[in-house]
Amino acid sequence: MKFRVDRDVFADAVAWAARSLPVRPSAPVLAGLLIEAGDEGLVLSTFDYETSCRATLTAEVSDEGSALVSGRLLADICRSLPAKPVDVMLDGARVSLTCGSARFSLQTMPVEDYPSIPAMPAATGTVPSEAFAHAVAQAVTAAGRDDMLPVLTGVRLEIEGDTIALLATDRFRLAQRELAWTPGQPDASVAALVPAKVLGDTAKSLTAGPEVTIALSASGSGDGLIGFEGKVFSPGGAPIGYRRTTTRLLDGEFPKVRSLFPSERLTVARLDKATLIESLKRVSLVAERNTAVQLAFKDGVLTLDAGSGDEAQASESVEAQIEGDDLVTGFNPQFLLDGLGAIDEPVVELAFTQASKPVVITGTADESASEDAGSFRYLLMPRRLLG
Question: In this record, what's one Pfam family (predicted)?
């Protein structure tokens, strides 16, 4: 194996492929990054039996071959190289890397011990990369982080025709985001439960090209795979390869959460998002751990209160456009901030049925109407108020 490759292109691809390497691999070879040089250039791969990453890039290949080296070490080396072409050659049991006057020699691992990279499922459709990354970032806000409840650490991806819905919950809150996409078949109907962390990292890493191809087997069961692929372009706009990630779907039944969104709204408040966030951050400074911040809606004002008894206390009022009954409730301040921060629009709408029921938070373009509510909805359970 012998090839020459552009330093920036190589370093970027290595960093991308190595980003998902396990911190504590179950076998030494799983810490490796597989380099394959052939007629079509380079293929860089990583795989931990759950998630695979595969990057292709153009290179001047003199001799075909493959080698398995430490992925994190190679990424660290590539990051530090001077801005000159990189020459890589397999020499016996070692890989030599030369860039300008910098020279490195890396120990290889046995390629034959490396697991086979799973094949990409058949393409299901395409979605604009930036829009998809943003939608996923909004949805994963509510995903669970407790590995004892693995189903809740996933995002349910539902495809119906030309719409993708993303749903996530940790039992205390629920996020739903919908976006348009281009299906391979107009009547496509499929669902999958994708690990939230993998989905978030993957969507964010595939924004170099204009669109992402999503590949999902129709079964959508726990033994299935989902794949994501995006093209990579040079600064001049020329295609220089693609990046592909596959991950195993989570097994288990995701709760039927859509019914949690109430059909009626008895109290609706619209507020300037930035003002509410700043006020909530200030008031929550005195909220003890696991205690709620109180929200009181009355006479065109939202009053936020935190702290109680002999402890520090804080109170602040914010102008609000309120329709319906007066209402006093309370929420985990960080969960509330998470939801507000995921909303794009400058005005937020908080819709209630009653104080003891969840709030549904959406974004609107202005304070006068709710018909233009965005496609992101965040439902948050209230917390019991002390005192």
Answer: DNA_pol3_beta
Give percent of the chain above pLDDT 90. 83
The pLDDT score that the predictor gives to residue 116 is: 94
Q: How confident is the model at residue 370 (pLDDT cuts 50, 70, 90)?
A: very low
Residue 25 Cα distances to 66, 106, 129, 225, 343, angstroms = 21, 19, 30, 21, 37
In whole angstroms, what is the distance from residue 313 CA to residue 130 CA? 42
Confidence of residue 17 (pLDDT cuts 50, 70, 90): very high
Question: Dihedral angle at the C-alpha atoms of 198, 204, 209, 211, nearest 10 degrees?
Answer: 70
Comparing 207 with 309, which gets the higher pLDDT?
A: 207
At the top level of CATH, which class does the domain 2-113 belong to? alpha beta
* Ramachandran region, residue 284 (left: φ > 0; alpha: ψ -120 to 50; beta: rest): alpha
How far apart are alpha carbons 231 and 245 in whole angstroms? 12
Q: Considering only CA atoms, which of 159, 209, 156 is closest in space to residue 184? A: 159
CATH superfamily placement of domain 261-380: DNA Polymerase III, subunit A, domain 2 (3.10.150.10)
CA neighbor of 262 nearest in space, from 359, 349, 335: 359
Answer yes or no: are the C-beta atoms of 351 and 259 closer than 8 Å. no
Query: At residue 129, does pLDDT exceed 70?
Result: yes
What is the residue extent of each domain of the chain?
A: 2-113, 123-225+244-258, 261-380
The whole-angstrom separation of Cα 377 and Cα 359 is 10
Average pLDDT over residues 120-137: 94
With a cut of 60, say whether residue 337 has pLDDT above it.
Answer: yes
Please, are residues 197 and 205 in contact by the beta-carbon 8 Å criterion? Answer: no
